Amino acid sequence: MIDFIAPVAAWFAAIIETIGIATITLFALYALYNAATRMLKKEESESVYQELRQSLGRGILLGLELLIASDIIYTVAVELTFETIGVLAIVVLIRTFLSLTLEVEMSGKWPWQNNK
Fold first, then answer.
1. 54-59 — which CB contacts under 8 Å span 24+ positions?
2. CA geometry: angle at 60 spanning 56 and 66, to 5°?
3. What is the spatial distance between Cα 111 and Cα 93, in angstroms, rounded to a whole number?
4. DSSP readout, 80-100?
5. pTM for the complete prediction?
6. Cα–Cα distances in angstroms (integers) from residue 29 to residues 14, 45, 47, 98, in the given order
7. Which of 26, 33, 52, 102 is the residue whose CA sits 20 to 30 A from 7?
8. How far apart are CA 32 and CA 25, in angstroms?
9. 37-68: pLDDT as tens digits
10. Alpha helix (H) ranges present in 41-115?
11. Buried b (16+ CB within 10 A) or exposed e, 54-74
């Protein structure tokens, strides 16, 4: 049974990682397209810029969550050693820090602050 789980988990991790990369790429392309069309319509550049940053931030956050999920699946199910757990911990810390700073950048407040 264990011989079956590792290749399947590696396959699912690769699929989720691909979806994470595609998510970031598609959000970036959509945000750039949307910003370009709005600029051609002569909309206010400050609002276009803010929406571009919001869209890019949302895409990166969602993509990072998927990439973290794929790393966890791969490490736990395929290559569970102290070294890979340490690398996973560092990667998750870095990606969590990036997610947190992107959230603060997009919303202007810490995620645990009230929406008031």
1. 54/106, 55/27, 55/30, 55/31, 56/27, 56/28, 56/31, 57/102, 57/103, 57/105, 57/106, 58/27, 58/106, 59/23, 59/24, 59/26, 59/27, 59/28, 59/30, 59/31
2. 150
3. 17
4. -SHHHHHHHHHHHHHHHHHHH
5. 0.78
6. 22, 18, 18, 21
7. 26
8. 11
9. 999 999 898 899 989 988 998 899 899 899 98
10. 45-77, 82-107
11. ebbbbbbbbbbebbbbbbebb
39: tokens are: 């600029």
Our CA dihedral for 100, 105, 106, 112, rounded to 10 degrees, sits at 50
Confidence check: pLDDT of 27 > 60? yes
What are the sequence ranges of the domains in the chain? 2-107
**Tokens in use for 52?**
């571009």
Q: What is the pLDDT of residue 33?
A: 96
